[in-house]
Amino acid sequence: MSKKTEFYDKLRTTLNEETKFPTKYLFKFIVPTSEEGILQIENIFNDGGAVINKNVSKTGKFTSVSIHVVMKNADTIIDKYIQAEKVEGIISL
């Protein structure tokens, strides 16, 4: 079993044990500041009525992106993280 699979299995278990669904969930990412990367993240969450906040670092090299969105279950949360992994240089918090 890969480390990613183990991580997502543990996350799924934790979410199911500690969260009542549907729930408002906070996703936090850091990406290199580029219009393309930020747009990719926004597109991942575009369909769910997400509230997206962006904050550029002091140096301007990175942008933090916080997304508040209602999620139906643990699997939908994990699906969003997997989609976000495809954004170049992204760090999930």
UniProtKB/TrEMBL annotation:
Domain of life: Bacteria
Pfam families reported for this sequence: DUF493
Protein name according to UniProt: DUF493 domain-containing protein
Organism: Lutibacter agarilyticus
